[in-house]
Amino acid sequence: MGDDSENGDDLTNRASDQAISLVELKSCSSLSIADNVNIEILTTADVMQCMDQVIQEVTAVIQESTTLARLLLRHFNWDKQLLLEELVFNLS
Predict the structure, then answer these.
(1) Residue 64 · residue 38 · CB < 8 Å
(2) Rounded to the nearest 5°, which phi and psi values hold at 50?
(3) Percent of the chain with pLDDT over 90
């Protein structure tokens, strides 16, 4: 019974972590804004896959743990470009 409660809390925490900016989703989905609007509805699995992809990209650049990459992305609202620009700016 305690496991169900913990799993529910874990799912709630993961759901709050899934706030990805539209900028990052554009690379993982088909979204075009024009006269004919095409929008792909992403499942939770799709969002998680996009998040994992972005985490791996940031991990490769910063050469640190995936946990640190995830924390940094969360701090920068999952804006990978802004995160990388800030890192470059601080290194110079």
Answers:
(1) no
(2) -65, -45
(3) 50
The first and second tokens of residue 82, run together, are 């802004």
Residue 92, both tokens: 């110079």
Strands (E), 25-73: 31-32, 38-39
For the chain, domain boundaries: 2-91
Q: Is the pLDDT of residue 69 over 70?
A: yes
For range 19-38, the mean pLDDT: 56
Question: What residue ranges in the chain does DSSP mark as E strands?
Answer: 31-32, 38-39
**Which residues are 32's β-sheet partners?**
38
**Which stretches of the chain are DSSP H helices?**
2-17, 22-26, 44-62, 66-75, 80-91
Q: What are phi and psi of 32, to 5 degrees?
A: -135, 135
Q: Which tokens in the block code for residue 11? A: 């799912």
* pTM for the structure as a whole: 0.58
